[in-house]
Design a protein that fits this description.
Elements (H helix, E strand, L loop, with lengths): L1 H18 L3 H71 L6 H6 L1 H5 L6 H8 L6 H5 L2 H17 L4 H26 L1 H17 L8 H25 L4 H18 L2 H14 L5 H14 L2 H17 L6 H16 L7 H12 L5 H42 L3
Helix pairs in contact: 1-9, 2-7, 2-8, 2-9, 2-10, 2-12, 2-13, 2-14, 2-15, 2-17, 9-11, 10-14, 10-17, 11-12, 11-17, 12-13, 12-17, 13-17, 14-15, 14-16, 14-17
Length: about 400
Amino acid sequence: MKNTLIWLGALVVGAVLGLLGLQWVDQLADFVAVIFTRLFQLLAVPTIVLAVITTFATFGSKGSGRIFGRTLTYTLLTTLAAALVGAVLYVVVSPGNLPAEAVSQAQETTDAAPVLSYYDHLINLIPNNIVKPFLEGNVLSLLLLAFAVGIALSRLPETENKAVVVKGLLGLQELLFLLIRWLVWALPVGIVAFAAQLSAQLSAGVIAGSLGRYVLVVLGGNVVQFFIVLPLFLLARGLNPLRVLRAMSPAVLMALFTKSSAATLPVTMESAERRLGVKTQVARFVLPVCTTINMNGCAAFILVTSLFVMQQGGTPITLATIAAWLFVSVFAAVGNAGVPMGCYFLTFSLMSAIGAPVAVLGLILPIYTIIDMVETAENVWSDSCVCAMTSHDIEDSRQSSPI
């Protein structure tokens, strides 16, 4: 409770500093925010790799398979629910068409945006250099490598050499978590900087009135998923949503400001183990996987934004269209990387592939910072819920199994 009050206080202080409009304050906030983001990104890559390798090496692929099965099930259910909420809100609110001149003026903004096909995404998953995925922070490639190394270690005979390797990896992981605890201790300073950054952006006027209904659908869907749908999932499994949210609040706050679930992963794992009480082997396996495939906010954004962009191009938005893009958005979100603006560029790629007016995305870009913040916080909250439910299921199955 004490830490939560400190973080909330830091949030208020940062917001006030951002509203002052002082250039040196804004520059200092940007400097500190960049440092914190880079430090968490620095720890995120080895956290993912070591967590997966040690989990497989210590408990074997058979035991991890049961955890992965529940993780995947809850991921797909919560992601589908998020997309459904977005679809319902889109039908109810019914965003209108934008002026044609506004779309044409936005064309220059989107011309330089990178476009990658799904073929390119799949090819990029397979590394041809063991160092390259670490340098690029390619989470999916790193997961493939970690799975392979972890399973290989679990299949090795129990020799002294294997014990040395596993102990070395576990020792590196303990060292990594000590560094993470130091960063979490200094987190209030980062929150002040991030809040000042956001406050300055808002006071500069980044919200465009012409996109009000679209923004209402996207943010409204995130709010409904965050405060209603995900707590219902927890209640259905016999868990207290308030207790889980209170325990995971450092990770949710960190996600809000870093806009990267991958960069937030060290804090998410730390909060799950030390504050929520999730078993180490569960947290260090479920959360890296969730960071890569569990994208509730992204699924809703892809669905709503795709419908909005297609509508501007004259495509009739029928129930069949919504249903088709509902499944596209879910599976696209599962394959999305947990990095800033990942959903934006993925949506751009999808719209480019079908010839939709991608210039509309140029109008969305100025307000995407706010959308990305809320989506990432929801993604990490969903990761936390999936981890809590998986841990609960695993504990229940162990208690009910005969001795």
